[in-house]
Amino acid sequence: MATRRVAKRGPAKSKRVSAHLMDKLKQFVRTEGVAYLSDSNISSVGIGYKWKDGKPTNQISIQFTVDRKAAPELLESLDTTEIPESFIVDGVEVPTDVLQRTFNIDMKIVAESSGGPRKTRIDPIMPGVSVANKKQTAGTIGGIVFDRQAGTPYILSNWHVLHGPKGNIGDEIVQPGPHDDNRVQLNHLGKLVRSHLGAAGDCAIASIEDRDFDQNILELAVKAEQLGEPQLGDKLIKSGRTTGVTHGIVTRVHTMTKIDYGVPVGERVIGGFEIGPDKDNPAADGQISTGGDSGSFWLLKSANGKPSKVMAGLHFAGEGPGDPNDHAIACYAKSVFEKLEISVDAPAPQAIAARGYDTGFLGIIVKVPRLSAANGDDAFKLNGSAVIPYTHFSLALSKSRRFAFWVAWNIDGGRLKSLSRKSLRFDFDPRIPVGSQVGDDLYAGNRLDRGHIARRADLVWGSDNEAASANKDSFFFTNITPQMDNFNQSKLGGIWGKLENAVLEEVDVDNLHVSVFGGPVFKNDDRVFRGVKIPREFFKVLAFVEAGKLKARAFLLTQNLDQLELLELNEFKVFQVTLSEVEQRCRFTFPAKLKAADGFAEHLDSQPEGVTERAPLQSLDDIMW
After folding, report:
1. Where are the beta strands (DSSP E) in 77-219?
2. How far apart are the C-alpha atoms of 184 and 189, rounded to whole Å?
3. pTM listed for this prediction
4. Do the strands 55-66 and 92-100 form a parallel or antiparallel pair, or are they unpaired?
5. Which of 289, 367, 493, 591 counts the most CB atoms within 10 A of its CB?
6. CA triplet 597, 599, 604: central angle to 5 degrees?
7. What distance in Å separates the CA atoms of residue 270 and residue 197, rounded to the nearest whole number?
8. Which domains does the chain have, with CATH numbers?
9. What are phi and psi of 290, to 5 degrees?
């Protein structure tokens, strides 16, 4: 990711500071300087030009801000201590400077809504408009960014805008924020994906669902394409939800600011830099920011005074009332982007085959399951379709459960290849918001396995390139469900993993072609673990042609979720069932042609026993092919 500075025009710097000394000053502020923030009267510490007679000089200083300045003899009454006149840093005596300023997050108090594009629902969304967690008030969309690995687009704003003290990952994000339009049910934008509150910044990202987006910042008509490193005197510009377009100058760098985020979070120290007013471009009422501007991008200005495409920082706080020379605080762009693992550019998309499951693979048309109306509304749509294609398989994805409703795949038994999986890793499908997929956080530090629905070994066939593509596609999280390790790995669930091989070995399958449908069974009372409902049952349907006749066989596996915490192991039971029983559990419909090919139904009595009363399969020999 490119890092660049644009025009720097501030007061003349007759005493230039070397890069080495600046690095040492930065280190000093983050170690010794930050310790002074334990003083209740000190609000921040950073590096800036020393002020004299109400004007900045060209002398560098370690600059403190305090809630209240006072004569030395009055400091004890304020329960505060005197700040030294200077510090020795790397052998150099550096003076201190004390200014009276207090900072608050620019969301605690928001101006009354007056409508306009910044405070209303818009589609496509764009940076500079109102947004918030549905539990918060209103902040600003800073920009459109992309997941560094998957390329998924997100909105970037502040932690206190998208997360907040009462928030959780996965919370609903609305545009505009509830303060500007309390009809949150009409304004869904996406879900909170990642956030951070600490030295690296006050920042968070959220997914974009069912909305288009425009990367150009409102009224600035540019998008951030690079990250900059702001220095003292740099001129900046921002576009925020409340104050609109305002201008500023970098007045302090490498600043650690103490901010009160309220109960239960309390005070936190946030790293960043300070922006003061640009006298050549004064803001209305002297306010370069105010409540509701949180999350805005500060862009460096070009030599011609226009906005550049270089982002300097993410606005998160402004000066409290009482100082006519308003100042703002922003997180460093580079720190935010590293912490949230995002980029200003989408990475090159991974090659994903578009043909997917082949309905004519068996020589007889066998279509995919049809979702119920409720499931259809919950299905993620890719280019308007609920059927998402990969190499040799397709699936339908539940947005609420974040797992597949079903996966359909084709197996060419005569063209299977043996490929290594060593270089492959589980990953998000870049075409789908990360918020609609369950990733590695669920599986860390417990006995849950990342279990393939469509087996990797089933998909790796065809030409070398085709097999390699299928091998890679099989590791997308959309094809993964959580499975207990003894289900996915041990002999206790061995029948389940051998079903596809068994049909090829036990039946004279025409052309060695088999089509399979599989997936989890979603239930309302599925156990919640780490915020995710864990399916406890799975289905699988095998379709094949024998002597020119279509046949179908269905199976159900029940998973014992108590094994997440208990040491005792219980065997997972595999039952042979009818396709109709799978339909009832999963709330989708198989093609009539496939159900007519379900020979197992013919073996049941006219009043069949329930699945729970039916004996589970003890071996592959128990299957009625």
Report:
1. 86-89, 92-100, 103-105, 130-133, 139-140, 143-147, 153-157, 172-174, 188-198, 201-207
2. 10
3. 0.60
4. parallel
5. 289
6. 140
7. 7
8. 370-622 (3.40.570.10)
9. -160, -175
Whether 141 contacts 132, CB under 8 Å: no
DSSP label at 412?
Answer: E
User: What is the Cα–Cα distance from 202 to 106, expressed in whole angstroms?
Assistant: 11
Closest residue by Cα to residue 316 from 203, 220, 199: 203
Residue carrying structure tokens 């003292």: 232
Please name the residue ranges forming H helices in 282-413: 333-340, 373-378
Residues lower than pLDDT 50 in the chain: 1-14, 113, 488-492, 560-569, 605-607, 611-612
- The region that residue 580 occupies, defined by phi over 0 for left and psi between -120 and 50 for alpha, beta otherwise, is alpha
Could you tell me if 544 and 551 are in contact, meaning their C-beta atoms sit under 8 angstroms apart?
A: yes
What pLDDT score does 417 carry? 87
Longest CA–CA separation in the chain, Å: 102
Q: How many angstroms separate the CA atoms of 173 and 188, rounded?
A: 6
Helices (H) and strands (E) in the chain, counts: 10, 33
Residue closest to 572 by CA, chosen among 582, 583, 558, 562? 558
DSSP string, 244-313: EEEEEEEEEEEEEEEEE--TTT-EEEEEEEEEEE-TTSPPGGG-S--TT-TTPEEEEEPTTSSEEEEEEE
CA distance 121 to 124: 9
Spatial CB neighbours of 46, under 8 Å, sequence gap ≥ 6: 29, 62, 63, 252, 253, 254, 255, 256, 257, 273, 274
Half-sphere exposure for 292 (CA within 13 Å, toward CB):
26
